[in-house]
Structure formats: structure tokens, C-alpha cells
Amino acid sequence: MKFVQHRWIYLALPLLAADCGGWQSALDPHGPDAWNVRDLIGLFAIVASIVWSMVMLALAGALSRRRPASQRPLATTPSGERRAGIAVSAATVATVLTIGGLTLASYLATRVSSSVRQDPLVIRVRAYQWWWEISYVDEAHARNLTTANEIHVPVGRPVSVELAAADVIHSFWVPNLAGKQDLIPGRDNRIAFTAASTGLYRGQCAEFCGLQHAHMSLFVVADPPDQFEAWRNAQLGRAADPATDEQRIGRQIVVGKACASCHTVRGTSAAGVLGPDLTHVASRSYIAAGLLPTTRGSIAAWVADPQTVKPGNNMPMVPLTGDELRAVSAYLTSLK
Known about the structure:
The structure is a single chain. The chain is of the alpha+beta class and 336 residues long. Helix content is 39%, strand content 18%. The chain has 2 domains: 20-55 and 82-236, Immunoglobulin-like; 245-333, Cupredoxins -  blue copper proteins (Immunoglobulin-like, Sandwich), CATH 2.60.40.420. A 5-stranded mixed sheet has the order 3-2-1-5-8. It has a 5-stranded mixed sheet with strand order 4-10-9-6-7. α3 packs antiparallel against α4 (78-113), α6 (245-256) packs across α10 and α8 (296-304) packs across α10.
């Protein structure tokens, strides 16, 4: 009977472990930088629990020592004043030491995340309202490439991410791999991480940046080194040639209408730089900064009316007939 009465307590216990795992959890780390953040969270939780317990014990002790009724309730004694002074002084010193220790621990953890590693993979991330431009930097200029919203990295190799913002303050946060770092217009920041295992990790802008802040995510794909090199070599190539008449018509529409003014499709005359590079758009898991899976239907919906899908974004609606929209979606879906 008691179990039935208090079954809600047992049912609520799993909530204690809710959100402790998954592809966007700081408590499910997959790299040394994320391990540091998890340990820092654990340290803060332990210290906060100890402080709370001590406060509750002090409160319980004070309540248990009730003073008898007196005509002078505020009367004090010299010995009582000394004990109170010692207690207040000790609590003040303990507070200062606790806050100072936690501040130092936080500083050490964040300093490691921004330090320069040996032989890093250098990636430049530029944030816009509301998408991410990803550029891979190499000493050989021909090995430089630009993509959007999806970062591929090799497992075990340090990654140095150079951060910049084009409009307002954003924040780069991939909790499975590292802590947070702000992207501030006019100021360059850096964050470093190393993926210890393969997987797909979700990131998010962690600084309110406007209407579609919640729909500004990115993904980090950690691949074995050989698969990463194969992906990079494929991304360096020009856009695939159309394989069907419908795709050929779609390419003509893309390069002939306003799409080419904002987007680049390498191997064609489309060379815009205002929007994401579309050369290999279909190779990404999602479009619209994580809002829609990369399918032909999603691409068609996005092209047909981007303001309904993601209100406030900077992509204008390009008037297309039904046949033109089908051709464009067929062509963009072929760009892998």
C-alpha cells in the first residue's frame, strides 16, 4: 500500500538521469576537452551539495536551540557575541576560498580548450543569422574548401576552430566535444577540441541571436582518418554533372535565376558568397542549419518558401513554377 501511495517517487527517479546522454549532452563527453567540462560540472555539483548540506545543518541546529521566552529577546552576552563573530568570520573565509577555488578550476578548464595543439586541423567558423559557414584551411591553397553547417573531423587529431561573427553575437557549443565560446563581431576567438571516438555530434548556437536562434544548429561528424581524407577529397571536387534531363534543366534554372547571386556551385557560373556553398549540399545530413533533413522534399519546400519554413532568414523567395521547382530539387539532390 505504501508503495502504491508513493509510486510517483519511484517513477520520478529516472528523471535524475534524464539528459545525461545523447548527441548533445555535456555529461556524455567524447573527447578530452569535454571530459574537462564534465569534471568541472561534477566539481561544482559536489561543492554546491556540501555547501547546501552545511547550511541546512546550521539551520536545523539553530531551530533546535530555541531560546526561552524573555522580556528582552534581543539581549546579548559578550561570550555569545564572540562566538557569533567567529562563526561569521569563518563563514566569510570559507566563502571566499570556495568561490576562489571554483573560479580557478573554471579558468584552468577553459584555458585548455583555447590552447594551441600540435599539428591541428584548422577550421574557420563564421556565424550568420542563422547558419554557419565552415572553411578548412590548408597550407596548400588548392586544399582549402568551404561548406556549411556540418563539420567533419578525423578521430584523434586536435582541431583548432577559429571563430568569427558576421552580424551579431553567436556562441559555438558542441557539448559532447568541448565547452562554449562566443563569436563576437570584430573580435576573433578560438576553441580547440579532439574527438576521441567516431560519431555524429550536434552543436547549437548558445547565445540568443534573433528570431531563429533555436534553429541555428550544426553537426560535427567524427570519422576515422582515412574516411575523413576521402570526404575532404570528395568535397574539393566540382559539382557533379547532371545525369538526367530534369537535373540539367534544374542546373540551368539555378545558374540563370537569383540563386546564383547568393550561392556558389563550383563548376558552374554560380559564384555568390552571401549564402551557403551548394556544391555538395546533398552530402550534408541536414539543410537550413539543422532544421530539415536533406531530402528532395525538404529541399523543394525550402526553395519554394523559405520564409514559411524559417521566418526572418535572409533567403528571398524565388518565384518558380511547379515544373521548375521539381527540376531544381532534382538537381540540388544530386549534388553529393
